[in-house]
Write a structure and sequence with these properties.
Number of strands: 5
Radius of gyration: 24 Å
Number of domains: 3
Distance between the termini: 41 Å
CATH topology of the largest domain: Rossmann fold
Helix content: 55-70%
CATH superfamily of the largest domain: P-loop containing nucleotide triphosphate hydrolases
Shape: globular
Largest sheet: 5 strands, parallel
Number of helices: 15
CATH architecture of the largest domain: 3-Layer(aba) Sandwich
CATH class of the largest domain: Alpha Beta
Structural class: alpha/beta
Strand order of the largest sheet: 2-3-4-1-5
């Protein structure tokens, strides 16, 4: 099984990286203007969330470090998958920004020659999280790269990086994979029932990671269904206030589900590496290291909560997107096809202007949360607008039996 097999919906990008990995040539001095099948020292993978940027980055890393071009089975490929290969350096942050010290450390490690493979590969996930001062540290490394070091940066778009960095990398853009491609991946890789896989891929809007969660986690599906029902049912200010509190609880539960098991595994691994037996008290001399781990986990929990809120807003925007399409009579597949009857009833009852106002309210809520407005206040303001649009159209707070799913 090749490392390229699970990169669904990106045939053009896969062809570029397979050709580069198999070219056998040393990286050029600059990424811009390279021939289509040539190897270069720095790459930028861009694409929307869930398109598989990091998956492609590590598949390319495996192809470069594996003697068989990314077979997916050898020790090199397994080490890349575990992020433990001696010639692979990875920078992935759980914080809002990547610190300058992290990049300096990465640049220093990039100067070493490969120890066991043809290349030394450096992957920076979320390269858009570098501020200008930090980006300039990376820029110096890209200007004078060691002969066998390959940089792979990942970001949502080229515009998220400095122009000087963009001029020194070869950019490959990913597209949003189709719903059918994502569903097929879930069936093949995870053994998911075809119908469940299709619904999950559609409701995740082709976000591969989210589709996997919805397809394999019943609680994740339940939380999404509750979020949708709440948004479509709120009709008074009181319900909006209570609904905002509930949405925050749902986001928190979603974030906890993602981080709880990982936190426990990290703590167990840290204690084991420090020689502390399970159940044994942590010696005073080692408590500083455990405290640093706990601080990192708290920062990750904060980011996970923000991500959970963003997922909720994305789901709610898909609802009103579907309403707009229904009101326009567009022949486009609905994201929330599982509640199509209910949405059609709402589309007939709501005024198009109120639907657009609701979409604006969702956009405002996302912008306010990003600007560090208290999430509860941002969600309350959003739901009050949704309630007002329903009240003006005299839509009942619950669908009739005929319109429900």
């Amino acid at each position: 099984m090749s490392v390229w097999d699970d990169l669904t919906g990106q045939p053009a990008a896969v062809d570029v990286f397979r050709a580069a990995a198999g070219s056998g040539s040393a990286p050029g001095e600059r990424g811009a203007g390279s021939a289509p099948d040539s190897m270069t020292h720095a790459w930028l993978i861009t694409g929307p969330p869930g398109s598989g940027r990091s998956n492609l980055a590590y598949a390319f890393a495996s192809a470069l470090l594996c003697t068989r071009g990314g077979c997916g089975e050898c020790a090199d490929c397994r080490q890349v998958a575990a992020r433990t290969h001696p010639d692979l350096s990875v920078l992935a942050t759980e914080r809002v920004i990547i610190s300058i010290d992290e990049v300096r450390s990465l640049v220093s490690s990039s100067q070493f020659s490969p120890s066991v493979s043809r290349y030394r590969v450096v992957v920076i996930e979320d390269a858009d999280r570098m501020v200008e001062r930090t980006s300039n540290v990376l820029l110096k490394a890209l200007e004078e790269p060691p002969e066998r070091t390959v940089w792979i940066l990942c970001a949502p778009s080229e515009a998220d990086l400095l122009p000087t960095i963009r001029s020194r990398v070869r950019s490959v853009r990913l597209r949003v994979p189709s719903v059918s491609d994502v569903a097929a991946l879930l069936e093949r890789r995870d053994g998911v029932d075809p119908e469940v896989a299709l619904v999950a891929a559609r409701e995740a809007q082709s976000h591969i990671g989210m589709a996997h969660r919805l397809a394999t986690d019943e609680e994740a599906r339940r939380r999404r269904a509750e979020t949708v029902d709440l948004a479509l049912s709120v009709s008074t200010v009181g319900e909006a206030v209570a609904g905002a509190a509930r949405l925050l609880e749902i986001a928190g539960a979603d974030a906890k589900a993602i981080t709880e098991q990982r936190d426990a595994e990290e703590r167990e691994h840290a204690l084991r590496s420090l020689g502390v037996e399970p159940g044994q008290a942590v010696p005073m001399a080692l408590r500083g290291q455990i405290k640093a781990l706990e601080d990192d986990q708290k920062r990750r929990a904060t980011r996970s909560l923000r991500d959970g809120l963003d997922r909720i807003l994305t789901d709610l925007q898909s609802l009103y997107r579907d309403l707009v399409l229904l009101q326009l009579g567009a022949e486009v597949e609905l994201v929330n096809a599982s509640i199509e009857d209910r949405l059609r009833a709402l589309a007939e009852a709501l005024d198009p202007v109120s639907v657009l106002s609701a979409l604006d309210a969702l956009t405002d809520a996302r912008r306010r949360i990003q600007a560090n407005v208290a999430p509860t206040l941002a969600l309350e303001a959003m739901l009050v607008t949704l309630a007002q649009s329903r009240a003006q159209a005299h839509v009942p707070s619950r669908p009739s039996r005929k319109a429900s799913v």
